[in-house]
Design brief:
Low-confidence stretches: 1-14, 21-26, 146-151
Order of helices and strands: EHEEEEHEEEHEEE
Radius of gyration: 17 Å
Helix content: 10-25%
Number of strands: 11
Mean pLDDT: 78
Strand content: 25-35%
Strand order of the largest sheet: 5-4-11-10-9-8
Structural class: alpha+beta
Length: 223
């Protein structure tokens, strides 16, 4: 997998825009729309078509002293009303967890987590179609869906609304910050909106990582 070689100096409220990166260049830190096979381990292949890769980033983007580890921003449209979905300690209505194995995700829930009612299936299909359309446009133009021209002025949308620093949930004193078995907090990696990639989806995500356990926690709220 190749990553953008342009290092942007980040502060705790830095936003990263699609125009900051050129995926045709030799790369090191960020890649938009990675292949599913570059994001998910083979044993999680059942997630294909349901969980959509948005972006991969090197953990060193937060701090050059951190290990050389690749994490991934993903999106999926879940059905919060489906009673046959199966939860566990790693996956519930507002959280999923992955093991990171050789920079690829292993989903910590079963296939039953993605049980969808017939009423919700149309939304799942729409998200998938929207994602495929955005991906096709990006491959053709190099622009994200939400970048557009208005009187010759390019209006930019962020890839991330925040990289590193303190998560919104922490600032709001919400009691859902991931903790590892040693009682240590996960690293807050990034915050991002699904609508910056897929126009009809209203989720704000927070991505966390624990170096000791190699676990990735993705939490979200509906906006």
């Amino acid at each position: 997998m190749e990553f953008e070689d342009k290092r942007v100096v980040l502060d705790y409220v830095h936003s990263i825009y699609p125009s900051d990166f050129d995926n045709s260049a030799d790369s090191k830190y960020v890649k938009l729309f990675p292949l599913f096979e570059d994001v998910f381990h083979l044993e999680s292949s059942f997630c294909k078509g349901v969980i959509h890769p948005l972006c991969s980033l090197n953990l060193k983007l937060l701090d050059s002293k951190l290990p050389d580890i690749i994490l991934h921003l993903v999106h999926f449209n879940d059905d919060p009303y489906e009673s046959t979905r199966v939860f566990n300690e790693y996956c519930d209505d507002y959280k999923v967890t992955f093991d990171l194995v050789k920079n690829k995700y292993v989903f910590k829930g079963g296939k039953e987590y993605f049980n969808h009612s017939q009423d919700w299936k149309q939304w799942i299909d729409r998200t998938h179609a929207d994602y495929e359309g955005v991906l096709a446009d990006y491959k053709e133009t190099g622009l994200l869906l939400r970048q557009y021209s208005d009187s010759d002025n390019i209006v930019k949308e962020e890839i991330f609304t925040k990289v590193g620093g303190i998560a919104i949930s922490r600032l709001m004193k919400m009691d859902n910050y991931p903790i590892n078995d040693s009682g240590e907090e996960f690293i807050f990696v990034a915050e991002y909106y699904a609508c910056h990639f897929c126009k009809d989806d209203a989720k704000i995500y927070e991505l966390y990582f624990d170096i000791k356990s190699s676990k990735v926690v993705l939490q979200w709220a509906y906006t």
